[in-house]
Amino acid sequence: MTTQNQPQKKIKILQLLRAIQTEQLSKLQQKYQLEQDLLEDVRTYTKQRSTIEREYAQALQKLNSQFLQKKELSAEDLAGEKWKQNPTWSLEISA
């Protein structure tokens, strides 16, 4: 009887090990898929964020150039303009 039980035990052990291996493989595949999905989410997030930051930088650059042009015009206007004394002050100073 012991000789008949040994092959049956081996078969049961092999079936159990095969079932465990199949379960482990399934869990590893699920983990791989979750990690792959996470990496795809990070890639999409980074891509969208870089697009937003590029647009923001371009808008800031445009805003800065507009204000610099205004400042240059104001400085040129002041340099070309001769400062005239107010006639009232001229009378006060000369008196």
From TrEMBL:
Pfam families: FCH. It comes from the Eukaryota. One of its GO terms (biological process) is regulation of actin filament polymerization. Residues 24-77 form the FCH domain. GO terms for cellular component: neuromuscular junction; recycling endosome. This is F-BAR and double SH3 domains protein 2. It comes from Desmophyllum pertusum.
